[in-house]
Amino acid sequence: MAEEREELTWELFGSASRELAEEVAADGFAPDLILSIARGGLFVAGALGYALDVKNLHVMNVEFYTGIDQRLDLPVMLPPVPNVVDLTRKKVLVTDDVADTGATLKLVRDFCADHVADVRCAVIYEKPASTVKAEYVWRRTDRWINFPWSVLPPVVKREGQVLDA
């Protein structure tokens, strides 16, 4: 029997991101900017940016997963790395689709910590093993998650990508 998976559809993502934004707003946190962890965090950042009326969105590229349940030993920041001057004394909301091990969120949160006024994390899913407990979580699960943006294989397989497995 195949392993049961968490299924996130585009429609459910719309509801999830709205509920996540409501959680951030209800907490009184008003971020100056949203820092998304590419690639999955881009979708979350865009949705939260609209819902929280935050136009200042930044991207941090981090490579960790190389396949299903396959990852590097440690997450690696890929260029271009955000300029800390852009983050200085700002309230930053870091977004990702899932906090699995927590290693990626920790890397980004720690990168921000010495420069920003406040850094908090928002994720659609958080797994029990995550070493970082995000302040804002839509759902907790221990299952593998099928995200609507990554469940289908690429239309074109590109070789030579950074840290291509």
Automatic annotation (TrEMBL):
Keyword Zinc among record annotations: no
Domain of life: Bacteria
Single annotated GO MF: glycosyltransferase activity
InterPro entries, alphabetized: PRTase-like, PRTase_dom
Keywords recorded for this protein, A-Z: Glycosyltransferase, Transferase
Signal peptide as annotated in the record: none
Residues of the Phosphoribosyltransferase domain: 10-151
Record-given protein name: Phosphoribosyltransferase domain-containing protein
SUPFAM superfamilies (UniProt xref): PRTase-like
Record PANTHER family: HYPOXANTHINE PHOSPHORIBOSYLTRANSFERASE, HYPOXANTHINE-GUANINE PHOSPHORIBOSYLTRANSFERASE
Keyword Glycosyltransferase on entry: yes
